[in-house]
């Protein structure tokens, strides 16, 4: 996955994606039970 993200923004962008992923997983888990 090649995205044009400035080096200074890369870590913050990764944290953002990670948090969104975790939220999605949590919603998936709670929705399943």
TrEMBL record:
Entry superkingdom: Bacteria
Name recorded for this polypeptide: Uncharacterized protein
Species of provenance: blood disease bacterium R229
